From TrEMBL:
Keywords: Kinase, Transferase. One of its GO terms (molecular function) is kinase activity. This is Histidine kinase. Residues 9-143 form the GAF domain.
Length: 151
């Protein structure tokens, strides 16, 4: 797993560089416990992301996992009455804009890839497509490592 972890974190650094974003992270579903955890990050200011645990139907990650469709946040500002748990990763990393896309393994949404900025930003179509394509490649990389793991 150590090698895969290094590959994932290097990939997150690459997508940050290619999209000129401040933060990139990968959340993964734990089907046994019915939870979603942020597993890997690049550009993080602290390790709070590691302690964020959500239900698969909650928060920005849960929304993307449930719908299987990307979510583009042009300007995130929490509002009075909002549940902070719905935006915990955005709050923990002080993100103002983000692209969150599904990560598919064996034709099922198993997690999400998030890239974000700590300033307001309108993402162009090229950046959005780049993140979507990157998530597909990461899903294929992870699927390959699962399929070829020693038993």
């Amino acid at each position: 797993m150590g090698s895969q972890q290094g590959d994932v974190e290097a990939s997150l650094s690459t997508i940050r560089r290619l999209t000129d974003t401040d933060f990139a992270a990968l959340a993964w579903t734990d089907e046994k416990n019915q939870t979603v955890h942020w597993r890997h990050a690049s550009g993080n200011r602290n390790d709070r992301f590691k302690r964020i645990v959500m239900r698969p139907n909650k928060g920005v990650a849960g929304s993307v996992i449930r719908s299987g469709r990307p979510l583009i946040l042009k300007s995130f500002t929490p509002k009075s009455g909002d549940d902070p748990q719905d935006y915990s990763i955005l709050l923990a990393e002080n993100l103002k804009s983000a692209i969150i896309v599904p990560l598919t393994i064996n034709e099922r949404v198993k997690g999400v890839l998030l890239v974000g900025c700590r300033h307001l930003r309108t993402f162009d179509e090229q950046s959005i497509e780049l993140v979507i394509d990157f998530a597909e490649q990461m899903g294929a990389m992870i699927q390959y490592s699962i399929d070829h793991a020693p038993t």
